[in-house]
Design brief:
By secondary structure, this protein is of the alpha/beta class. Helix content is 39%, strand content 16%. It is built from 10 helices and 13 strands.
Length: 337
């Protein structure tokens, strides 16, 4: 297939593109290489892709309507995976406009491209953040998610609503994937594992929010990518049993689906740090802080729909995943053991 991926210089996008190229797909990759975090890391991720003949590298902003239209018209992708977004819960408190520009306006441009170019299936990144103030664990796609606690979460919920509208109006199959705390090699420098590793190795304290008392459903990058590919290959279909009298948030009478991709095994933050300390062979100096605005205490993914529909359940333990990250980090940054 010819697959358009947005965010191919990103953590998930670059790893996903490699997997699709390896199985013989052609990949058109969009990224703008913005400076939200280390551009050199983004370039290094891209370098793994640009040497392959089946990969086409395109530099354009999602919010550039004419630029996105031109990409669709030139390349005519069969399927689209939208991963590009302004990420980060805490950054949304500092620069809210970036989330509207990229996550809302940019996503509309992707939807329009799919609508006008007969795209077979749109898969897009949502987030566990959409569960917001919900404390009904584990989080299910059949739960109501109308109470976001950050603008980032609100932008991702908006993506789901926008996708449903296009599925309903134009019959475009869309699948939204709610990712749960992704980590692993080539990860984002603004995320906890990266920050912890860098500071511990530099003998600097690490910031531990909520006094270390929260849990996260940490999900290893390869498990995320496998889930994306399986859902990409299963084109969304209508739920014929769907009823407007008792509407199911996770499905629709339109070709619209939602899935959680999470490890289905929450881990306490303090245990996560302990595993990292063991892998690094060093103890962390901890700066214990309260829960930050926009953060939620716990996340826990119900993946029963993912298992039922595509036969897949993430299963990499944090012990395995953190060890692989540390090996990558030491190699990439030439840090001696």
């Amino acid at each position: 297939m010819k697959i358009l991926i947005t965010g191919t210089a990103g953590f998930i996008g670059s790893t996903l593109a490699q997997r699709l190229l390896a199985r013989g797909d052609k990949v058109i990759g969009i990224d703008n290489l913005n400076d939200y975090y280390d551009v050199e890391l983004k370039k290094a991720r891209l370098a793994r892709l640009t040497e392959q003949s089946q990969f086409t590298d395109v530099r354009v902003d999602l919010e550039d309507r004419e630029g996105i239209n031109a990409v669709f018209e030139k390349h005519k992708p069969h399927r689209v995976i939208n991963l590009a977004a302004q990420a980060g819960v805490r950054y949304s408190l500092i620069n809210p406009h970036a989330y509207i520009d990229t996550n809302i306006v940019g996503f509309l441009n992707i939807l329009e491209g799919c609508h006008h170019n007969a795209v077979e299936h749109l898969v897009y990144a949502s987030s566990s953040s959409v569960y917001g103030a919900n404390t009904n664990y584990p989080f299910s796609i059949h739960n109501n998610v109308d109470h976001p606690v950050s603008l980032y979460a609100a932008s991702k919920k908006s993506n789901e609503l926008m996708a449903h509208t296009y599925s309903h109006l134009y019959g475009i199959p869309t699948t939204g994937l709610r990712f749960f705390t992704v980590y692993g090699p080539w990860g984002r420098p603004d995320m906890a594992l990266f920050l912890f590793t860098r500071n511990i190795l530099a003998d600097k304290p690490i910031d531990v929010f909520n006094y270390g008392q929260h849990q996260r459903d940490f999900t290893y990058i390869d498990d995320i990518v496998e889930g994306v590919i399986r859902t990409l290959d299963k084109v969304a279909t209508p739920n014929n049993a769907w009823s407007g009298d008792d509407p199911d948030p996770g499905t629709s009478s339109a070709p619209f689906r939602l899935y959680n991709i999470g490890n289905n095994q929450p881990v306490e933050l303090m245990h996560y740090i302990e595993v990292l300390e063991n892998c690094l062979g060093k103890k962390a100096e901890k700066n214990m802080l309260p829960l930050q605005p926009g953060d939620v205490p716990n996340t826990y993914a119900d993946v029963s729909d993912l298992v039922a529909d595509v036969g897949y359940k993430p299963q990499t333990t944090v012990e395995e995943g953190i060890a692989r990250f540390v090996d990558w980090y030491r190699d990439y940054y030439a840090v001696s053991r």
